[in-house]
Design brief:
GO terms for molecular function: transmembrane transporter activity. The chain has 676 residues and is mostly helical. It is built from 28 helices and no strands. The longest helix has 36 residues, at 394-429. The radius of gyration is 26 Å and the shape is globular.
Length: 676
C-alpha cells in the first residue's frame, strides 16, 4: 500500500500548522512590545533589572504559553466528545461543560474565595461533569441526535448562566474579578497559571494517547466494538472524564473559551485524518493556532489598553464555521423529522377546554392580585382589596397604583408576548423545546440594545428598544438567509439559532467589557428585569404589539396544526409551507423583540408556557394560544413578585427567577420526552 499521500498530508498538516503558529507568536510579541526585532526580545530575556524585561518575562510570555496549552487541551477535549457521541457538533461549549464549570467556580468563589487555587480546578471538573451528564441524560443518551443534544446543551447553558448571574449580582465584591475572566481571557500576571496547567495537562494527554486506539474502535459501532472485546461503556466513561478534565483545567485558569474544541478537530478531519493518533496531534496543533490567532485578532481590532475577551472573539470567529458545518452536514446528521424533533411526551387525557381556559384566567387573576399585595411593603388581602376599590388609604393606593400596578401589567403583557413567540417557534420547528432563545432572538435583541446604549451615549433612552428590535430581526434575517436552501428545515433553523446566540452573547460581552459597564447593572438588564418599568413601557412597547399579534397568531394557528403533521403531509393538504414559516417566524420575532425592548432578555417563559398549555388542551394551536397567553403572563408576574419579595428590599431580576422556575421544568420535559 502506497503511503506517500498520507505522508504528504502529514507534512502539510504539521509544517503548515507549526509555521502559522510561529508567525502568530511573532505577531503577538510585536503587539506586546511594539518592536519587530527578535534581538530586542532576546535582550529583554537576558535583562533582570528593568521593568520592561520583567513585564516581558512575567506577562507577555506566560500569556502566549497559556494560550498554546489551552488551545491544545480544548482541541483534544473536542475530539473526544465528538468521538464518544458520534456527534459533529459536540464540544465543551455545546454540551454545557463550560457553563457548568464556570458556575461552580463562581459559586466556590463566593463561599471559599481563599481556596480557589487547586479547588478551582476541582470545582470546574465537578461542574463540567454535572452539566454534561445532565445534557446526555436529558437528550436521551450518548446516541441522541445532534439536534436534541445541541438544544439540551443550549438551554442548560442558559440555565447555568442565569444561576451564575444571580451570584455575580448579589456577591459583586467577591466575584468582581471574575467577569472578564468569565468571558475567557489569556491575560496572565506571572507563570503560576502555566505551572499549574502544564503538569495536569501532560498527565491527561498521556492517558488520552494511551487509550487513543480504543477511540478508533468506538467508531466501528457498539456491536462491532463489543465483538472485538472492547468494553464500550467503560471506554466512553473514561474518555468522558478525561475530556471534562481537559476542559476544566482550561476554564479554571483562563475561563470558558468556546468553539476551539469544535473547530480544530474538523479542520484536521478536512485534511483526511480519521485515526485518533494523528487526529489528536493535528487538532491540538491547530487548536493552539486558533486560540493564539484569536488573541492576536482581538488585540488588532482593539489595540487600546481595554481587553477584548478572547472567548468572545473565538465565538464570533467560530460561529460562521458552525454555520458552515450545519449546512455541510444538513443531509446526513439530522435523521428523520421524528428523530430530530423532541416530542411532547406521552399522551394524557385532556381536560375540557372551557374548564382549562377558565382556570387559566382565574389563576392569572389570583397571581396578579398576589403581586399587588406582595413586596418589600406587604399588605393583607383585605387591605389590598380595599385599596383597589376604595379611597380610604392614600398611602396604600399610591404603592399599589403608582408603583406596582403598572409594573405588573408590564410583566403580564411581556409574558404574554414571550409565550406567543415561543408557541409560534415551537409550531414551525415542531419542537416543544424551542423558544426565542433558540433562534438567537434574545441574544440578538440584547446585543442590539447594548449597541445603541454604548455606541451612541447621548441618544435618548427611548431609542434603546429600537436597537433591540433591530438586533432581533437581524439575527432572524441571517438565519432565514442561510436556511433558505434547506426550505427552512426545523433542525437547521434551531442549530443556526444556536450559532447566532453565540455571536449575540459574544457581542454583548465585548460591549460590556470594552465600555467598562458596571457588571452588576449589565447582568441585571441582560438577565431580564421588570425593575422600574411601568405604564410608559406598557403603552410604548407592549399593548399595541400584543393587540395586533393575537389575531395574527390566531390566523396562523390552523397552519401550525398542519405543519405538525410533517412537511410531506402538509404539502399534500395544500399548505403553503414557506409562507406559513415566514409569517410565523416574523411574527414570533416581533413579539420577542418588543418584550425584550420593555423588560430585557428573559428566557424560559416562551419555553414553559406553550408546553404547559399543550399538556392541558392537546395539540390544537387554536386552543393552545389563549391558554399559553395567560400562563406566560402569570409566570412573569409571579417571577416579578418573587423577585421583589424574597430578598426585600433587594430585588432579584425577574428573568433569573423565571430561569430558576423554568430549569426544573425543562429537565423534566427532556427526561419525559426521551423516555417516550
Amino acid at each position: 500500500m502506497n503511503s506517500s499521500p498520507f505522508v504528504s498530508r502529514a507534512v502539510l498538516l504539521y509544517t503548515s500548522g507549526a509555521a502559522l503558529l510561529l508567525v502568530l507568536v511573532y505577531l503577538h510579541l510585536v503587539q506586546s512590545t511594539g518592536t519587530f526585532s527578535v534581538r530586542s526580545w532576546w535582550e529583554l530575556l537576558q535583562q533582570t533589572d528593568s521593568t520592561e524585561s520583567s513585564i516581558f518575562r512575567t506577562v507577555y510570555l506566560p500569556r502566549i504559553v497559556i494560550g498554546i496549552l489551552s488551545g491544545i487541551a480544548l482541541a483534544a477535549s473536542g475530539v473526544i466528545f465528538q468521538t464518544i457521541t458520534k456527534n459533529p457538533l459536540a464540544a465543551p461549549s455545546t454540551l454545557g461543560v463550560h457553563a457548568g464549570a464556570y458556575f461552580f467556580i463562581v459559586a466556590f468563589a463566593t463561599i471559599l474565595p481563599d481556596w480557589l487555587g487547586l479547588s478551582g480546578f476541582i470545582a470546574a471538573f465537578v461542574g463540567g461533569c454535572l452539566a454534561a451528564v445532565m445534557v446526555f441524560t436529558m437528550a436521551g443518551g450518548l446516541e441522541a441526535t445532534p439536534v436534541r443534544m445541541a438544544l439540551a446543551g443550549l438551554v442548560l447553558s442558559i440555565a447555568f448562566s442565569s444561576f451564575t448571574a444571580v451570584l455575580q449580582i448579589f456577591f459583586e465584591v467577591q466575584t468582581a474579578g471574575l467577569f472578564l475572566w468569565g468571558n475567557g481571557t489569556l491575560v496572565q500576571q506571572d507563570w503560576s497559571g502555566v505551572r499549574f496547567v502544564f503538569p495536569v495537562l501532560i498527565v491527561l494527554l498521556f492517558l488520552v494517547f494511551f487509550y487513543a486506539p480504543r477511540l478508533d474502535i468506538l467508531l466501528l459501532g457498539k456491536n462491532q466494538a463489543a465483538t472485538l472485546g472492547e468494553n464500550v461503556r467503560a471506554t466512553q466513561a473514561l474518555m468522558f472524564f478525561l475530556a471534562v478534565g481537559l476542559t476544566a483545567i482550561v476554564v479554571s485558569v483562563v475561563g470558558p473559551i468556546g468553539f476551539i474544541g469544535l473547530v480544530a478537530p474538523h479542520l484536521t478531519r478536512l485534511m483526511g485524518y480519521q485515526l485518533h493518533s494523528t487526529l489528536l496531534f493535528g487538532s491540538m496543533l491547530w487548536g493552539a493556532v486558533l486560540l493564539i490567532g484569536a488573541d492576536v485578532l482581538g488585540r488588532a481590532v482593539d489595540p487600546s489598553l481595554s481587553e477584548l475577551p478572547v472567548g468572545a472573539v473565538t465565538s464570533i470567529v467560530g460561529a460562521p464555521f458552525l454555520v458552515w458545518l450545519i449546512l455541510r452536514h444538513r443531509g446526513s446528521f439530522f435523521g428523520t423529522e421524528q428523530q430530530s424533533a423532541i416530542g411532547g411526551g406521552r399522551k394524557r387525557r385532556e381536560l375540557k377546554y372551557p374548564v382549562v381556559l377558565a382556570g387559566a384566567v382565574m389563576f392569572t387573576a389570583l397571581v396578579f392580585f398576589l403581586g399587588l399585595a406582595g413586596g418589600s411593603t406587604g399588605f393583607s388581602f383585605a387591605d389590598t382589596w380595599k385599596a383597589l376599590f376604595t379611597e380610604e388609604s392614600s398611602g396604600q393606593r399610591f404603592i399599589i397604583f403608582d408603583l406596582r400596578l403598572g409594573r405588573l401589567l408590564t410583566a403580564l403583557t411581556a409574558g404574554m408576548l414571550l409565550a406567543l413567540s415561543g408557541m409560534l417557534y415551537q409550531g414551525i420547528l415542531r419542537n416543544p423545546l424551542a423558544d426565542p432563545s433558540v433562534l438567537g432572538v434574545t441574544s440578538g435583541a440584547g446585543a442590539g440594545a447594548l449597541f445603541v446604549l454604548f455606541l451612541f451615549r447621548d441618544i435618548p433612552t427611548a431609542f434603546i428598544p429600537v436597537g433591540a428590535i433591530a438586533g432581533a430581526f437581524a439575527a432572524v434575517g441571517v438565519i432565514l438567509f442561510f436556511s433558505w436552501k434547506t426550505k427552512f428545515h426545523p433542525a437547521v433553523l434551531a442549530l443556526l439559532g444556536i450559532a447566532l446566540s453565540a455571536v449575540g452573547g459574544a457581542l454583548s460581552q465585548i460591549m460590556i467589557t470594552r465600555f467598562n459597564l458596571n457588571a452588576a447593572a449589565a447582568l441585571t438588564w441582560l438577565s431580564g428585569s421588570t425593575y422600574a418599568t411601568g405604564y410608559e413601557e406598557l403603552q410604548q412597547f407592549l399593548l399595541l404589539p400584543l393587540a395586533v399579534s393575537i389575531p395574527l397568531a390566531w390566523y396562523l394557528a390552523p397552519s401550525l396544526n398542519v405543519l405538525a403533521l410533517g412537511d410531506q403531509t402538509a404539502i399534500a393538504l395544500g399548505e403553503r409551507l414557506t409562507f406559513a414559516r415566514w409569517a410565523a417566524v416574523l411574527l414570533a420575532t416581533f413579539c420577542a423583540a418588543m418584550a425584550v425592548a420593555a423588560v430585557g432578555t428573559i428566557g424560559f417563559i416562551g419555553l414553559v408556557a406553550p408546553h404547559l398549555a399543550r399538556m392541558l388542551v392537546g395539540q390544537d394551536y387554536v386552543r393552545i394560544l389563549p391558554v399559553a397567553l395567560f400562563i406566560g403572563g402569570s409566570l412573569l408576574v409571579f417571577s416579578d413578585t418573587i423577585g421583589r419579595t424574597v430578598l426585600a428590599p433587594d430585588e432579584i431580576p425577574s428573568g433569573l427567577v423565571a430561569a430558576v422556575i423554568g430549569t426544573p421544568f425543562f429537565l423534566w420535559l427532556m427526561h419525559r420526552s426521551s423516555k417516550s
